[in-house]
Amino acid sequence: MRKIIVCTFLSLDGVMQAPGGPDEDPESGFEHGGWQKPVSDEEVGAAIAGWYEPADAMLLGRRTYDIFAAYWPTADPDNPFTERMNSMRKYVASRTLTSLEWENSTLLQGDVADAVRELKASDGGDINVVGSGDLAQTLMRHDLVDEYRLTIHPVIIGTGKRLFADGAVPTALEPVSVSTTKSGTIVGAYRPSGKPRYDSY
């Protein structure tokens, strides 16, 4: 059984929107694009590279696919991520796209949850969900996420899309590994472990 792993950069207040650049995703008037790099460091980069070692595919929503497909095919070939991103298999969930131009990309057919269940049951390595907040929330609602790998950066953004938005399914998490980089970024891996427990002091 393949694992579905949500890999996401978060601000301290949980914002995941447009970490990579000012014009990445201005939806809903978002004005804080590019917030991640100033609060990142080489340890964060090494951790992210490690996320891709056991994975042989990415699962992307339409918006993230569009951003990546516009960038990676012509990205600097000396960037160690360029070859990796272009060569990996990409599975794309979209209700509007009818064809995909980026190499090694496949459009999921039918119901997204059913299609992802089929992917999980197929042969292969881990499948990383990168960005793709709406898709990640769909996967959470259908209990399809096997692990979260998060970088939580020391900055408060205040507005924007959040990975764990209002209405997220209450879920207990088991820490797999948690560390802090010299810039103060928390690099954490967590596995869902059923329902939260409740108690009082």
Short key terms for the protein model shown above:
about 25% helix; Dihydrofolate reductase family protein; DHFR-like_dom_sf; 5 helices; Riboflavin_Biosynth_HTPR; about 25% strand; about 200 residues; 8-stranded mixed beta sheet; alpha/beta
Overview of this structure, please?
With 201 residues, the chain is an alpha/beta fold. The protein is built from 5 helices and 8 strands, in the order βαβααββαβαβββ. The protein has helices at residues 42-52, 62-71, 80-87, 112-121, 133-141; strands at residues 4-11, 55-61, 89-93, 105-107, 126-130, 147-153, 173-180, 186-192. It has an 8-stranded mixed β-sheet with strand order 4-3-2-5-1-6-8-7. The termini are far apart. The model has no long low-confidence stretch (mean pLDDT 93).
Largest sheet: 8 strands, mixed
Query: Which oligomerization state do the chains in this entry correspond to?
Result: single chain
What is the rounded distance between the termini? 40 Å
The rounded Rg comes to 17 Å
Average pLDDT confidence is 93
User: How many β-strands, per DSSP?
Assistant: 8
Shape: globular
| Count of alpha/pi helices | 5
State the helical fraction.
Answer: 10-25%
Low-confidence stretches: none
> Which range does the strand content fall in?
15-25%
> Could you spell the SSE succession in H and E letters?
EHEHHEEHEHEEE
- Strand arrangement in the largest pleated sheet: 4-3-2-5-1-6-8-7
Protein name: Dihydrofolate reductase family protein
InterPro entries: DHFR-like_dom_sf (IPR024072), RibDG_C (IPR002734), Riboflavin_Biosynth_HTPR (IPR050765)
Pfam family, one: RibD_C
Domain Bacterial bifunctional deaminase-reductase C-terminal: 2-186
